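Structural prep section.
Before we set up the soaks we want a predicted structure of the protein with T4K in place, mainly to decide which crystallisation condition to try first. Input record follows.
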Amino acid sequence: MSKILVTKPFQAPFEEITAEMQRAWDAEWLTNNGPLLKEFEAGLNEYLGTRECAVVSNGTVAIQVAMQALEVSGEVITTPFSYVATTSTIVWERCTPVFVDVDPKTFNIDPAQIEAAITPKTTAILATHVFGVPCDVDAIQTIADAHGLKVIYDAAHCFGTEINGESVLNYGDISTLSLHATKLMHSVEGGAIFVNDASTKVEEFGNQVSPLRYRVNRLRNFGHCGPEFFDGVGINAKNSEMHAAIGLVNLRYADEIMADRARQHKVYNEALAALELVMPEVPNNVRWNKSYYPVVFRDETEALYVKDGLEDLGILARRYFHPALNTLPYIDQPGHTPNAAHISTSILCLPLYFGLENETVARIGAEVARLCNECRS
Ligand code: T4K
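Run finished without errors. Recording the C-alpha cells verbatim:
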C-alpha cells in the first residue's frame, strides 16, 4: 500500500498550467520580472488584500532580502520554534539570533518576554506566525515602536490567515511568505515579500512605489536601477514566468484549497477530541488558514510512540518543528526556552493535503487515538 505523506503539493489540472505557460513561451519572455510574474503579484495583492507584494525565488531568500532592505544588523530577537530557515537566515546575514521563549498557547514568540532580551545591539524582531496562527502583532508592534526596532514576520505559512478580516501579511515592516510546493498556496518554488511602508511614494520606471518596495526591488535584481545603473548591492532573488504561471493557476483554487483543509481539520478534531492533545489556540478575531494539523502530546515519549506506530502503518507524520532552533549546532547563546523545548519535542504534524479523503483522515485519527491510549495505559 502506498504511504500517506505528511503533505503533498496541490496539483491543478495540467492543461491549465500549460495554457498559462504557453503565454510566456509565445511572448519569448521567461524570467526577469516578466508580465506573468507581475500578474501573479497583482493577483496575490488582490486575493489577500495586501498592499505591495514582491515575488521572489523562495521564502528563505525573502527573509534575507527583508533583512537587507531594513538594514538589520547586530542582534535579532527571534523564536526558537519555527522551521530552520528563520534562524539560519539570521546567521547567514551575519546577525546574532537572540531567542525568546514561545507562548505555550499559540506556539509563537511570547511578547511578554521580548523586552528583557533587548540590548543596545538589537535592531529587529523576526517572529514566525507558526503554522499560520498569528503572533500577538499588537503587543510586538508596541514593543518595537518603544525601542525603535524593525519587525519582520516570517509568515511562510500564512497565505489566507486574517486578523479582524485583514491579511496577517499587512503587519510588521515586512512579512514574508513561502510559495514552496508543500505550502497551501504555491508556485513550486517561490516566496513573496509584503511591504508595509506608508511613507511618500517614489517613482520607479513610471510606477509609484513605497521607498521600502523600491529597495526590495533593487535587492532582488542585482541592485539594478536601469540597464547600466546600480544603486547598491543586490542578489538574484527573481522568480521565473514558469513559476508565476503555476502560481496564477493555483490562485484560482485558493478558496477550494482552504475549504478542503478546514474539512479535514473537522474530521481530525472529532477523532482526537477525547485525547486532550494541545493545539495552537486561535483568537476569536482570527480566520486561521488551517494550513497544518499540529498536535502536542503529553511528552516526547508519547509523541514518538505515536509517530513510530503510524510509520509502521505507512502513515508519515512529521516532527514539525524539531529540533528547537536554539539547539542548532551553530548557535552559541540558546537562552532559556522551556516552552519551545517541550513543544518541539512533543509535537507531530499529521497528514493534511488537498484531496485527502475523510475516510483516510478518520482512520489516521483513530490510529493516533489508539496509539496514544496504548502509550498512556
Ligand atoms: N519559514 C518557515 C516557517 C518555513 O516553514 C519555511 C519552509 C521557510 C521559512 C522557507 O521557505 P522556502 O525557502 O522553503 O520557500 C518542507 C519545505 O521544503 C519547506 O518549504 C517548508 N518550510 C518546510 C516546513 O517543509 P521538508 O524538508 O519537510 O520537505 P520534504 O521534502 O521532506 O517534503 C515534505 C513532504 O512533502 C514529504 O512527505 C514529501 C512531500 N512532497 C514534497 C515535495 C517537495 C511531495 O509529495 N511532493 C513534493 O514535490 O521541508
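Observations: The chain has two domains: 14-251, 254-376.
Flagged for discussion at group meeting.
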